[in-house]
Amino acid sequence: MKTITEQKPLAEILELLKDHKKIYITGCGTCATTCHTGGKAEVLAMKKELEAAGKEVTGWMVIPTSCDILTKYAIMDSIEQINKADAILAMSCGLGIQTVAAFSNKPVYPALNTLFIGWEEHPGHFIEICSQCGDCAIGITTGICPVTRCAKGMLSGPCGGAKDGKCEQKPEHDCAWVLIYNRLKELNMLDKLKEIPAPKNYSKAKIPRQVDIVQ
Ligand code: SF4
Ligand code: SF4
Q: Ligand 1 centroid to 149 CA: how many Å?
C-alpha cells in the first residue's frame, strides 16, 4: 500500500504553528519518503524553513513507518527532545499523524495533505488506485477498480464518452473501461461484460468505519 501525500504550503504550516515556538519534527520512512514529502531530505528542509521563520527545532526523526504501532517506541526513544518542544509537526499521512498523536502528549500538526492510495505510474507521477469503498467490486473486472479508476464510478460498462482510449471527464487518464475491456480480451474473458453486477453496498463507505476480526 502506498499513501500519496503532498506538502502543505509553508504559509499554512506556519499559521498552524503560530502559537508555538519550539517544534519537534517527525517524518515517515515509508510512503512519505517515496512521495518526497516526509523523508529525511524533506524533514531537514522543513527544519531549515522553520528556523528561518524564527522557530526553535528541538529535534527531528524519520520514523520507519509512522502509521505502525512501533511508532510508540520511536517516540519513547526521542522523548527527551520531544518534551522540550511545544508541539510536533508530523510529515506523514493522516494515519501516521494520528499515530504520532496517539503516543505523544504534545499537540500534533500536519505538514502534509493526504490525497489517496495509489501507484507511482512513472517517477513523480502518482495515480489513485483504490478509494477503500468497503465493498470491493474488482471481481466484475478481474483486476481493475471501476469505482476509483472510472471518473463516474461506472460499474456495468463504459459511459460511452471515451475518446481515443481517454476518459471524457479526465482526458489525462486512460478510460478505465477501455483498460477493463483490453484486460478481459487478453484473458479471453470478454463474456464477463455480459454479466449484470449485483447492486453495490455503498453503506459500507459510511465513516468512521470499524471491523471486528474473529481470531
Ligand atoms: S472496488 Fe472499492 S475496495 Fe475494491 S479497489 Fe475499488 S475502491 Fe478499492
Ligand atoms: S470515459 Fe471511461 S473512465 Fe471516463 S467516465 Fe466514461 S467510462 Fe468512466
A: 9
Q: Where in the chain are all domains bearing CATH 3.40.50.2300?
A: 3-115
Q: Please work out whether the CB of residue 132 comes within 6 Å of at least one atom of ligand 1.
A: yes
Amino acid at site 98: Q
Would you state the cell numbers that stand for residue 155, as one nine-digit string?
460499474
Strand partners, 119: 127
Averaged over 57-84, what is the pLDDT?
97
Residue 68: all three cell numbers together:
505502525
Cβ neighbours of residue 44 closer than 8 Å, sequence gap 6 or more? 60
CA–CA distance, 147 with 187 (Å, rounded to integer) = 21
The reply to whether CATH 3.40.50.2300 applies to domain 3-115 is yes
Residue 177 CB less than 6 A away from ligand 2: yes
Q: Is the CB of 176 under 6 A from ligand 2?
A: yes
CA distances from 172 to 64, 143, 166 (A): 34, 21, 7
For residue 18, the surrounding DSSP H or E stretch is none
What is the pTM assigned to this prediction?
0.89
Residues 106/87, Cβ–Cβ less than 8 Å: yes
Report CA-CA distances (Å) from 37 to 4, 62, 122. Answer: 9, 12, 17
Residue 204 CA to ligand 1 center (angstroms) comes to 11
Nearest residue by C-alpha to atom 4 in ligand 2: 167
Q: Which of 25-29, 92-96, 112-116, 120-124 has the lowest mean pLDDT?
A: 120-124
- CB of 162 within 6 A of ligand 2: the answer is yes
